[in-house]
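During the no-cost extension, the postdoctoral fellow (Dr. R.K.) reprocessed legacy sequence entries with the updated structure-token encoder. One reprocessed record is reproduced below for audit purposes.
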Amino acid sequence: MRIWSHNDTGATIRNTSITTSLPGGTTLTPNSTRNCLSPRTTDPTQPSDSDTTCGETVDDAAVWSGANLTTSPTAGIQGRSTAATSGDLATGWSYVGFSMRTPSVDSTTTLTETASLNGSGTGHPSSSGTITVSD
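Re-encoded structure tokens follow.
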């Protein structure tokens, strides 16, 4: 799952946190959460891989509380703390990615994922996606 954030303000947004919760019935795959910067991406459905920079795997115990995630958009990137829950969001696109396990399904199941971006500034502060699981 990737949760994209877009800062189109032309300036860094300070003290930013990305928050979301796992959809009901799913569980986090341990050690799968990573933050990535992708400033040249213009469409998150077709990310620009040539300039994407991903950090180290973040510290699950620090950024996950049960099924709830609160992480800095730059946790683990370029030497920043993997336990950071807030930080600066530079101009452009970035995302937090993680893997989750879903229950066994006998037919197609759709799970809705919603996230928010909280910080000092403006921009596009929310992201959402739909996950479809088929047998």
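Confidence is low (pLDDT under 50) at residues 121-135. Residues 38 and 51 are 6 Å apart (CA to CA). The remaining legacy entries will be reprocessed before the final report is submitted.
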